[in-house]
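Mods, move this if it's the wrong board.
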Amino acid sequence: MAQATQRSTVPAIRKDRRKAPWPIEFYRSAVGKKWVMALSGVMLMGFVVSHLIGNLKLYLGRNEVNLYSEALRDMPGHLLPRTLLLWVIRVGLMGAFAVHIHAAVTLTQTNHKARATKYQSPREYLAANYASRTMRYSGVIIIAYVIFHLSDLTFGSGPHNLRGDAYNNLIYSLQRPWAAAAYVIANLALGLHLTHGAWSMFQSLGVNNPRINAFRRHFARGFAALIVVGNLSFPIMVQLHVMEPTCSANRTPKAQVAPCARAIAETASKITAGK
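Not the wrong board. Structure tokens:
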């Protein structure tokens, strides 16, 4: 009787999760996140190179730097409204930066979940080098400095900042010892990040052949060294007074603002005349 009244238990039917569009489904996988990290990393590496090339114009003088910055705001001439293409590029870079960070964080969380128990003894890093072990820390330093850099120069919160005078704005910023030190620390962290990132980028994209591993290693180290050495030259030259501002630091009085403002207007007129 007891057997007759005993109810059989039926396992609940679990509904399959509704599939998202394939790009999202691909990104949800570990392979997809690694691809996104690699491709967004390529975009950011391209920006780092172009940013260095633009900053190297500091050695050519104020007019070249301000012409370059004005050309960026004015590209591509009359084809689009002023600064529109520049902001499209900025938004694209911010998007690449955001997905790069998100992919890194979620991959780290996935790896921690996959390892049920932590290491019971001190780890021996045989395959990983210092750059790979410090990726999260160098990434945090880079993020913090990017926020400061945008506030200081792009959005104009720095000292004596005058819109359109990119040369003097950067010189005045790097004249502050603490700002120069922050610039140095951030670029050293960037070098470490690039050393491992440029190396692992090939592996994430499936390019992992023993015959080209030596090239990968030399490329990663050479690329990182080029960026770090080039960027570190700017605060060093400013602190050594090799690069000096061309306008007075006190730009509040109209008599001192006028010469700088006239030079900026002349730079803009050169860009317009060249269209």
